[in-house]
Design goal:
alpha/beta, homotetramer, seven-stranded mixed beta sheet, Alpha-Beta Plaits, Rossmann fold, four-stranded antiparallel beta sheet, 284 residues
């Protein structure tokens, strides 16, 4: 049994759904999931589909070629096709905070995450023991003004060597280089500790304290060149009161950060996220 | 332009999605929404589909017959097909509480609800002025032990005369008769003022107070013969504290009741709810 | 039985609580509620206290004078004392949207709000029938560029004549004049249809749609001269998805707006809000 | 500087607040926190107070004796007084699930929890490596039908040796013995994986799946002899849909369990919980 996931977007036009489902049927595929969305403002059609093939001789490469020539050209589709057999490879970038790291590794251990973690990378050594206790390789790549370029080269090398599909910044407190962003577009997931677009930038809990908000939030988004302005994948919030000190806000925020980031990781790893025009479509 | 909504369930089997979408395409229909769900425990397939036909000569009756003979028999489908042109007709049963009634009529006035309200029925006269101020016919059908059967007959007559599609009990404080339930299976929507299955039956806020819960809830469900045990359509909750008196719980609960009930009404009116084995599938 | 509510703030210093409670006891008062908060950053002490006096001869004015001379001067207290017998008078300013108005009047009718509504004021006539159906005087004060000053004078006159304590802008779509803000500092409550400080200004749902947020919010705050920057009283949020059109966001937002605004009204009317340095302390 | 926390409950009667605050003042104490609650149904008064003493010679024992003779007898107070210097000692009972354990230990490491963890106890060896990686003693006390009494004796011995103040069952899958409950009344905190009182007993996620609820919950409560019926400390919920399998419910539930349990631990450790008549008062 082979199973694929197909993501499509294109200009909205009649008969796409019927044509795609027909193509799957004519190739002896059985559709087990289908969902679609039409952005009526921009007139763009989005679809996510899972299909099973029971043929022993199924070749993903040939099927892709056939899909491209039979359908994709006709409808001018933008599409990606994934085999369920290949779990995505995720690199974890961390710094000194451990709450997101523990949360992700705990889920990883429990089998909740359908992905592989080839390595953890940090600019500090603080979290190495945690990586060790979960038996995951840990690379220490310090970043200073002087070594910035060198560090970036080391990161890129590691990402390539390990065939990384996407990167998660689990409270990695460094600005990621443009080169990295260009190489992994919509594939670097960050967790920002505020309810974006409120409190962009550094020290959002301090800003939230100062403004006297009654709710704090957390936002996971793809990194783009503009700070904290990338496509939002997941958000959550918690109620707070005037009795919360900045320290209390930070502690409460940690609960949000870890759950929101893990949700975003799951959505991305399960290929449930599409990005168009700096916004996400999140399939169920 | 004609638009239909199709709801299907059947034993899970290969090729249903392709066959249905193909059928629509071969009838010059353009699918604008499709969603499906497979209940893996019971092996049942569910689908909701919206399709547009630009033919001037489209006949819903003929199309239904064609769908039945070409597809429904082959796959042994249970299905319902609705024309978007015909808004469902909803009867509102109320008693003395006005918060749900105001909420529903406010939404109705603002165009938020895609339905018609031919009449409001109550066993009391208290809410007649509200019905009047919204220009909706109001029928007073008192229910006493002696007049129970007679009242039921009056209700049935009104429902039939007005070709009612579904009934909403907006805090109607009477037990609905079996006859009514049988005539409107999964078409009588109730709002229960607790987080079901906790606190079934009368005075749930009193029970919540006694148990010292930190969260109260509200549940909208279809009425079945077993009390408060019908398929759940929507639920929501609110945090409470030890400082809440029973009166406070009731006040807080009103906010939940009206929002949860209105959500359920919208889902039902938009044909987004399917029921199978006492559970609901809620399409997006 | 006389009951008072006392609100205090002052520089934090030892013995305030004991001194105040002692003062009440020595005047035969029985404290039935006490809560306090210390802002450790600014070193300010806040207290809310309810006290009952069973003396037949209790005079609020004399008690206030005594409190001022015995305690307030010594501790340099800023304080307000309210009699529970006098319900605060609230003026409702509306425009064309009716959802907040229905919600407030529904609660008012049910006895949920401990206040009086001497009148409803609007720059349009659309909501006059609602005011009539609830038997509340309605004043139509149109505002145009030419009549702005005149309209303001009419508003001030009405507020004074009816001895209004605080004003609620229930989706009143006009900028309130500085004169009004100066006359009713921290006594004009607004509902802004976003999660402040995100999406300040006009059309926040359009901005939320454009940014692709996964949660929308609503904020009730006191009006200050800076737009949407006044002290926040209450906030709430709701989850949304990529399937929500702007119209859907607006509809969902209405549910938030009405509940958040009514919460803020209740907190203010029950004298549970203190304002200091553009932030609120909300007592339980 | 000495700091105490005082918890009081008694029959509601005039002058308690003034008398207690006066007593503190006359002992050169400065009250830095005070909150109270009156249960009007049962006519019981509850108070929590924090007081600082700058005297070098402050003796907690003498102060307690003085409080007892001067005040407690007069008002027939039930009271407890804690020194802020002594952190409560918490024993962690676990079984095979690690998510709550990781969550608690992560918070413990980050300094979020104001308590000590002298040991972790389990009936299995699975989580020993986690205890080791956090440098906390781990005791393996297997429980079988035959060894039940012996195991209980070992548990009691460990609890006494380590002067444990309260026990946390972090998904400890065993019924706790009556002896233990009697020895630690309202001091054994459990996490139940449902929104109590819905789905009492084993396999609540299976029951939730079967009932088709749209929200699942988690409840932390003190263990009493009646199963899942003890005083509720904290609850939280999450929205689910018909697409959630039992496995999905369990995964989602883990997020609730760990956050709800940690909240309950913090409230208890900070002496913010009082229990009366099987309900909790939770001070802010």
């Amino acid at each position: 049994m082979h199973k694929i996931t197909l993501l499509i977007h294109c200009a909205d036009q009649p008969n796409i759904i019927a044509s795609v489902t027909n193509f799957m049927a004519s190739n002896d595929g059985n559709i087990v999931y289908i969902d679609q969305h039409v952005d009526r403002e921009q007139n763009i059609f989005f679809m996510r589909l899972e299909c099973e093939f029971s043929l022993n001789t199924f070749s993903l490469e040939e099927f892709k070629q056939s899909f491209q020539s039979v359908l994709a050209e006709q409808f001018q589709l933008h599409w990606k096709m994934y085999s369920a057999e290949r779990k995505p490879k995720m690199a974890l970038f961390v710094s000194k905070y451990d709450h997101c790291l523990y949360d992700i590794l705990g889920r990883y251990n429990s089998g909740e995450l359908c992905l592989e973690i080839p390595f953890i990378l940090s600019n500090h050594l603080d979290l190495k023991p945690i990586a060790n206790s979960f038996n995951i390789p840990f690379y220490h790549v310090p970043v200073t003004k002087a070594t910035k370029h060198e560090a970036e080269q080391k990161q890129l090398k590691l990402l390539e060597t390990h065939q990384i599909d996407f990167i998660v910044l689990a409270r990695y407190m460094q600005i990621v280089s443009e080169t990295l962003i260009d190489k992994y577009p919509n594939r670097i997931i960050n967790i920002h500790h505020s309810f974006l677009p409120a409190f962009i930038g550094a020290k959002p809990y301090h800003s939230a304290y100062k403004r006297g908000v009654k709710i704090i939030g957390s936002t996971s988004h793809y990194i783009t060149e503009e700070l904290d302005a990338g496509p939002i994948i997941a958000q959550d919030v918690a109620h707070v009161t005037h009795t919360f000190s900045i320290k209390d806000l930070i502690a409460k925020g940690r609960d949000l950060e870890k759950i929101v980031l893990s949700n975003a990781i799951k959505l991305h790893a399960n290929r449930k996220v599409m990005v168009y025009n700096n916004k996400t479509i999140i399939f169920s």
